[in-house]
UniProtKB/TrEMBL annotation:
One Pfam family it belongs to: Cupin_2
Name of the protein described by the UniProt record: Polyketide synthase
PANTHER family with a match to the protein in the record: LIGAND BINDING DOMAIN PROTEIN, PUTATIVE (AFU_ORTHOLOGUE AFUA_6G14370)-RELATED, QUERCETIN 2,3-DIOXYGENASE-RELATED
Residue span, Cupin type-2 domain: 34-101
Domain of life: Bacteria
Organism: Parolsenella catena
């Protein structure tokens, strides 16, 4: 049973127009997305009960807060976030940040928003 497929990122849109995730693949074993944030944009703090999330920075610089610890990461950096770790993305810098995100193992619903993150 063949699973190979090819897609082009231009066939997809960012969730919030010019920012957020752009999923190139959702399931069956993992999610793969390009993520972009404009200067001054951020993403709600949340955690996953089952999935782990990884970010690889393609360009720019961003703050990713994990369980209250701010990690400033930039082009070429990789960050792994385990299940249960509350994380928050913020771009307080003057340039767009673009990154790859993977989530695995795939779960249809596994995002719990955290209304009072530490930052």
């Amino acid at each position: 049973m063949a699973e190979t497929f090819v897609v082009n990122e231009n066939d997809f849109e960012y969730r919030f127009g010019d920012s957020g995730p752009k999923y190139l693949m959702k399931g069956p074993r993992m999610n793969y997305a390009l993520v972009q944030f404009q200067p001054g944009q951020s993403f709600q703090a949340h955690h996953h009960n089952v999935m782990e999330e990884n970010f690889f920075i393609l360009e720019g610089k961003v703050d990713i807060v994990v369980d209250g610890v701010c990690h400033t990461i930039s082009e070429g950096d990789f960050i792994h976030i385990g299940p249960g770790e509350v994380h928050y993305v913020n771009n307080p810098y003057d340039k767009v940040v673009k990154m790859v995100s993977t989530l695995a193992p795939f779960q249809e619903v596994d995002k719990i928003e955290d209304p009072n993150p530490e930052y």
